[in-house]
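Bench log. Compound arrived from synthesis this morning; before running ITC I wanted a structural hypothesis for how PBG sits in the protein. Inputs:
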Amino acid sequence: MRPTQAAFPATRHRRLRQGPALRAMVSETTLSPADLIWPLFVCDGDGVTQPIASMPGVVRRSVDQIVVTAREAQALGIPAICLFPYTDPALKTDACEEAWNPDNLANRAIRAVKATVPDLAIMTDVALDPYNANGHDGIVRDGQILNDESVEALVKMALAQAASGADILGPSDMMDGRIGAMRTALETAGHQNVTILSYAAKYASAFYGPFRDAVGASGALTGDKKTYQMDPANTDEALRLIERDLSEGADMVMVKPGIAYLDICHRVKQTFGAPTFAYQVSGEYAMIEAAAANGWIDGDAVMMESMMAFKRAGCDGVLTYFAHRIAKALS
Ligand code: PBG
């Protein structure tokens, strides 16, 4: 129960806000670089950094540059990076074989980072879209996204990532049954310590637009992802999906997108008490950067305030393209 407050003027809420020292003492939420996961885009080549038009300030990096950036992440106290490959369109097929090629771009990047920065945690994306001729996260036949065939492919992809040294697998595909299938396969293959951060409550969102440019999937995508990603109208369904993924062996769960879904983050954390993450996605990043570039908002202040909002809602951490900038601001 709340203690009763004395009436004004005995209680003056502004007393505790009068200066930075008192405000710091009573701050209910704190930020740390340990709250951050930094998503990075990987491309072919050597010494390459390519700008992404719809995400100003974000670049694709060749594997050698990913290694440099991984060192930077570690120096900033960021505990994990998340790798997303930009796959050569010539390697995209309907069966998505490149997804479990041990030498695909993502797996080569994992090995290179592990060899130089072994203590940095590496997260992956487990979904077929970068490798799929039609841009979907699952196998498509006759216009249908096939669940069980997709899970088989995703398991092969997950095992290849684990064998390359990934610490955290991030299934973002939203097929049914994939967490259990991956967990069983990992146990059987001797990867007992590989963790799964399930994109459990992932919505069919227009906020992903710039990301699809970044990984070169927007040109390929036919139709939308509404038969597997969630309807933005739903809340209870998110709880059922989180519960399902935890029961199948997910170690951590994610809500995605971020800022527009803080009610979901809050309810998930309150209900399950499991490690809960949010993804501040590409469109959220692009909106803040675009307004800042026009001088309409103070971009750095909005960046920090949005991070605070995730933590206040109950998130244990956030995947954000601002990770390095937030970590620098905190140091
Ligand atoms: C692919 C995937 C997407 C994102 C992360 N993994 C795009 C999608 O589902 O279409 C979005 C990330 C972002 O927008 O920053 N499965």
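What the model suggests: The chain has a mean pLDDT of 97. The longest helix spans residues 147-164.
ITC booked for Thursday regardless.
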